Amino acid sequence: MNDPGTGVAPATHETSQSSAQRSDDESVRLYGLLAEFETPAAIYAAAERVRDAGYRWWDCHTPFPVHGLDRAMGIRNTILPWLVLGAGATGTMIGFVLQWFTNAASFDLWAFVWVRGYEFLVSGKPILSGPVYPIVMFELTILLAAVGCVVMMFGLNKLPMLYHPCFKSERFRRASDDRFFIVIEARDPKFYRHKTEAFLDSLGATAVEELES
Amino acid sequence: MTTLPIDNTFDDPAQRAPLVLNHHDFGTVTEKICSVNEARRAPRAWYVAFVISLGFLGIFGAMIMYLFATGVGVWGNQNPVMWGFPIINFVFWVGIGHAGTLISAILFLFRQRWRTGINRFAEAMTIFAVICAGTFPGIHIGRVWVFYWMFPIPNQMEMWPQFRSPLVWDVFAIGTYFTVSLLFWYTGMVPDLATFRDRARTKIQAIIYGILALGWRGSVRHWHRYERAYLLLAALATPLVLSVHSVVSFDFAVAQLPGWHTTIFPPYFVAGAIFSGFAMVMTLAIPARQLWGLKDFITLRHLENMTKIILVTGSMVGYAYSMEFFIAWYSGSMYESFAMLNRAFGQYAWAYWIMVTCNVLVPQVFWFRAARQSIPIMFTACLLVNLGMWFERFVIVVTSLAQDYLPSSWAYFTPTWVDLLTLAGSFGLFMTLFLLFCRYLPIIAIAEIKHTMPEALPHGHGAAHRQEPTA
Prior knowledge:
- The structure holds 2 protein chains of 2 kinds.
- By secondary structure, chain A is an alpha+beta fold.
- Chain A folds into 2 domains: about 30-75 and about 165-210, 2-Layer Sandwich (Alpha-Beta Plaits); about 80-155, no CATH class.
- Chain A has 6 helices and 6 strands.
- Chain A has helices at about 15-20, 40-50, 70-75, 80-105, 135-155, 195-200; strands spanning about 30-35, 60, 110, 115, 180-185, 205-210.
- In chain A, a hairpin with a 1-residue loop joins strand 3 (about 110) and strand 4 (about 115).
- The longest helix of chain A is centred in the middle third of the chain and has 25 residues, at about 80-105.
- Chain B has a single domain (about 1-470), classed as Formate dehydrogenase/DMSO reductase fold.
- Chain B contains 17 helices and no strands.
- In chain B, helix 5 packs antiparallel against helix 15 and helix 9 runs antiparallel to helix 14.
- In chain B, about 50% of the residues are buried.
- Chains A and B meet through helix 2, strand 2, helix 3, helix 4 and strand 4 of A and helix 1, helix 6, helix 8 and helix 16 of B.
């Protein structure tokens, strides 16, 4: 899960060494180049061309999800739904085992401490009262799936991450307002300081600036 | 820029009605919504409302203290009406809490784009209503110091919850509903918290909003997973929102009491919950849009759509009332027939007819377009619906318990002053939380509003899309 989602093998450490040589000033470590666009249409067209130019370590930053931009960037579908399915299925099983063990079994089980189930006999109803189980099983399915969904979504996005080179840019503050940005990272094998800047300019960026890491 | 009609309540299906009025672009949307929170001082009405709410919150705290110190005897709960105000208030508040998740989940799955104007504070309202709801069974259990016995916590006493009891199902249903609603609300808010962080003017704001925003930077790789996660949450919350009030209705329906033991209860409770929830959303939305000038985002069309939902769900509730009577007669059970006739014409007839008037008759005004577009009429109607829905729970809980099978145990339930002040105090808790939310968190989903604007489409500009027939 190290690559940013393109499905292409990540750049190796050799390329990240050589990227320093490819930047202008070796004393300041260059993180990448930030290009600003003004409309969803402009960044959409630009993203397609960055993708076609073969860059791998790059990203778009938008104030809202621009429809289809993830496809235009060539991002593969996330595996999140399968993880959520797993979390939900775990919840279903926990729901069953919990009710069966606590109300219909009388053996010892280790749940952080040794505990014993209890055969709860209520108004002569069967010990294993199947018809009442689905409710708690359903609730736990939803609970684990929803918690898992949010936790794994942020986890796959490597959030929370309170520091990021982008945040050093004053211009980037508008990424949560009304501007659209493309960042191409210096570790990308195709990154050359001047060539990439000229390329970004040619895409119609209204401004291009360096990001220090 | 094309000129938009200021009236977006037209019915022409060939035209997509604009959801944001007055020529906003992305920047002015941010500016306008953030201005609610960035103003150095809140409107005076906010301070007045906040002080009053705090007063009621104080009363709530005092009543709970008094209850804990003295015991549940301070309430009017007496044999045979052992479920008095606490359960009525619990069901009432859980019902209120249904609109938020309905708007965020079900309307999302149905691609109802107008939900974006109202979903954030409807979700907030849901969470605060569920907090109020959860308080009542919590303080009702008598021995509050062993409240954790409700949960299956491993212990050496071999003591577990009894899973054949609907009251235990409630613990799981309400617990899950609260957690999922909170996650939904927070996940939806993260991009807007990032906007707040980026606009912060003080160090404290930058730190607090910065931590809450988790370092969100609007990366499209993140948005990709985020949108998928949001869709999954909506899909998970949809059956959940329908299940919560069904499980609450099992508290009644699983019992043997005439008037409770009916299969219509789950759908009837769910319809009633959505009905009361929307009424409460409107009760809060109408003053809020006025106070902070958010009429460009919560437009008359939004309000009109909500009145339509209130009309539909109110009529469903009315259908359920009449069907209860029909089944009582059709079943041939004399106890059922007695319970129903007693409800409508017995000692609680006054409560029953308040309920019918407010819940069934009042919403019928929304058949008329003029009523759907008149702020005073819809606000009054919504207040009456809130009142009527509280009385619905009163009627259900009290009438069936006060006169059950054994005439020798019949009694008339009278609430005590503690009951009444606790109910009033719960509104204080609700409003305090809601007013704090309005002051410090984004009350309209900024990123989602931008997403629904025609300018947000990457292919060509709005004008062409605006003329496009609704897909």
